[in-house]
Design goal:
The protein has one domain (about 5-115): 23S rRNA-intervening sequence (de novo design (two linked rop proteins), Up-down Bundle), CATH 1.20.1440. It contains 4 helices and no strands. It has helices at about 10-25, 35-55, 60-85, 90-115. The model has no long low-confidence stretch (mean pLDDT about 95).
Length: about 120
């Protein structure tokens, strides 16, 4: 039974994803600390944060926050792809990250459909 956001698989997976993103982003050039690294981390943290906030508030805020999380998921995919194209991330590492991000995106889409 789901009693809080912590019980949601999508929140758990997206939090795990944020941890992985933080670790991977440590490998980005120091010159990107206030650029791409910061953007990637903010987008990754935004996903579980919005799921948690939406679930906690409830009502019509919940679907709105899930939509925001979906937007952050798309941002994160874009930023990881950019880092790969700039040779800041290895292709295999980026591919695995993008797979995880897509999985969270599918879960968010399904959650949004269930709230409609």
């Amino acid at each position: 039974m789901i009693q809080s956001f912590r019980d949601l698989t999508v929140w758990q997976k997206s939090l795990d994803l944020a941890v992985v993103v933080y670790k991977v982003s440590q490998k980005l050039p120091r010159s990107e600390m206030f650029g791409l690294t910061s953007q990637i981390r903010r987008a990754a943290v935004s996903i579980p944060s919005n799921v948690a906030e939406g679930k906690a508030i409830g009502g019509q805020s919940y679907p709105r926050h899930v939509r925001i999380a979906l937007g952050s998921e798309a941002e994160l995919q874009t930023q990881i792809e950019l880092a790969r194209r700039l040779d800041m991330l290895a292709a295999e590492e980026a591919k695995e990250l993008l797979r995880q991000i897509s999985e969270v995106g599918r879960m968010l889409s399904n959650l949004l459909k269930s709230l409609s």
